From TrEMBL:
<dbReference type="InterPro" id="IPR003439">
    <property type="entry name" value="ABC_transporter-like_ATP-bd"/>
</dbReference>
<dbReference type="InterPro" id="IPR003593">
    <property type="entry name" value="AAA+_ATPase"/>
</dbReference>
<dbReference type="Pfam" id="PF00005">
    <property type="entry name" value="ABC_tran"/>
</dbReference>
<dbReference type="Pfam" id="PF08402">
    <property type="entry name" value="TOBE_2"/>
</dbReference>
<keyword id="KW-0067">ATP-binding</keyword>
<dbReference type="InterPro" id="IPR008995">
    <property type="entry name" value="Mo/tungstate-bd_C_term_dom"/>
</dbReference>
<dbReference type="GO" id="GO:0005524">
    <property type="term" value="F:ATP binding"/>
</dbReference>
<keyword id="KW-0813">Transport</keyword>
<feature type="domain" description="ABC transporter">
    <location>
        <begin position="10"/>
        <end position="240"/>
    </location>
</feature>
<dbReference type="InterPro" id="IPR013611">
    <property type="entry name" value="Transp-assoc_OB_typ2"/>
</dbReference>
<protein>
    <submittedName>
        <fullName>ABC transporter ATP-binding protein</fullName>
    </submittedName>
</protein>
<dbReference type="InterPro" id="IPR017871">
    <property type="entry name" value="ABC_transporter-like_CS"/>
</dbReference>
<keyword id="KW-0547">Nucleotide-binding</keyword>
<dbReference type="InterPro" id="IPR047641">
    <property type="entry name" value="ABC_transpr_MalK/UgpC-like"/>
</dbReference>
<dbReference type="InterPro" id="IPR027417">
    <property type="entry name" value="P-loop_NTPase"/>
</dbReference>
<dbReference type="InterPro" id="IPR012340">
    <property type="entry name" value="NA-bd_OB-fold"/>
</dbReference>
Length: 373
């Protein structure tokens, strides 16, 4: 079933879209290799759907270019780009059977009638819906309807598949199942896929590379491992699940780490951005990197005492909220302390990530300011 990719590279060069004075997307540079699964990730309003619609040809660019193997396609109408789109709301024809929904696009593309039947059958087999071919969309579950939408795109054999939050209308169990199905189809058919989502767990589990957007601007491009372990800035860290974000002051920059003070908390962490002694910083720590220190452990750095206020059962672990004064810390633990109990929390210095706070100039910026003063 696998077929040869119909391009080698897709390039977005300085892609932007504005609406009057409002910037929806700006300066998007990205090269996608054939066969890659790329996730555009970020909160609502960050520009990810705008980027996808610009790629699809549904929204014209106000800046930049889109090229396939060096040839511009942003000047071509949507129907000539040979890109397939899977929408969030399925966009099925309610009066047509599953079969007709899948075959309709082929008919519109004037595919020879003798080729339509085998292509529809193949697409329905791939999404395990052959036995539902004569049903109407209303007779299907949400997950099955999304499979029909995917089959419709597969049947067209586009050179690029675009997916706009295709799982957001499904329940948790179906989302997990469809994540696996979409990844399976991507690998089995050798597709090139660009996938929009606001769900970081979804993106981490499916994509080869992630593009994190905020306020229409790219914050980081990297593999799931890179974004999970080393977010480029505190905005990315916040979005990627580092729920403990502490505003701090840098006390010292040492070879073995950065010493920061956040109120009553004093920690040694690892700087991922340039920071200077006396400057402002933010410390990012994942809940699963904070642990409850055992009573027999030797005293060590990066310990704080906090009072447990909330304990939530999460299956194999517990989600805790602990307070230190007015500060709330989020912790994952294999054991459940009692509410009201005082615990000692510890974090490895390598997992306390230190970022320069917004508005704090770097040494280079300070030097430039002095030189031009």
């Amino acid at each position: 079933m696998a077929r040869q990719a119909r391009f080698e590279t897709l390039e977005l060069r300085g892609v932007g879209r504005t609406y009057g004075s409002q910037v929806a997307l700006t300066g998007l540079d990205l090269t996608v290799r054939a066969g890659e699964f790329i996730a555009l990730l970020g909160p609502s309003g960050c520009g990810k759907s705008t980027a996808l619609n610009c790629l699809a040809g549904l929204i014209p660019l106000t800046d930049g270019q889109i090229l396939v193997d060096g040839a511009r396609v942003d000047t071509e109408p949507a129907e000539r780009r040979d890109f397939g789109m899977v929408f969030q709301n399925y966009a099925l024809f309610p009066h047509m059977s599953v079969w007709k929904n899948v075959s309709f696009g082929l008919e519109m593309h004037k595919v020879p009638r003798r080729d339509i039947t085998p292509r529809v059958e193949r697409a329905l087999d791939l999404v395990h819906l052959r036995e539902h071919a004569r049903k109407l969309p209303a007779q299907l579950s949400g997950g099955q309807q999304q499979r029909v939408a995917i089959a419709r795109v597969i049947a067209l054999e586009p050179r690029l598949v675009l997916m706009d939050e295709p799982l957001s209308n499904l329940d948790a169990k179906l989302r997990l199942e469809m994540r696996t199905e979409i990844r399976r189809l991507h690998q089995e058919l050798g597709l090139t896929t660009i996938y929009v989502t606001h769900d970081q767990e979804e993106a981490l589990s499916m994509a080869d590379r992630l593009v994190v957007l905020r306020d229409g601007r790219v914050q980081q491009v990297g593999t799931p491992e890179e974004l999970h372990d080393e977010p480029a800035n505190w905005h990315v860290a916040d979005f990627m699940g580092f729920r403990n974000l502490l505003e701090a002051t840098v006390e010292a920059v040492r070879d073995d780490g950065v010493v920061v003070a956040a109120g009553d908390i004093r920690l040694t962490g690892r700087a991922l951005e340039e920071v200077t002694a006396g400057g402002r910083a933010r410390v990012a720590i994942r809940p699963d990197d904070l642990r409850i220190a055992g009573p027999d452990e030797e005293p060590a750095e990066n310990r704080v005492r906090a009072v447990v206020r909330v304990v939530e059962y999460r299956g194999r672990e517990f989600a805790l909220e602990a307070t230190l004064g007015e500060r709330v810390l989020h912790v994952r633990s294999a054991v459940a302390p009692a509410v009201g109990e005082t615990v000692e929390l510890a974090v490895d210095p390598s997992r306390a990530l230190v970022y320069r706070d917004e508005g704090q100039p770097s040494q280079v910026e300070e030097a430039l300011a002095e030189a031009t003063a």
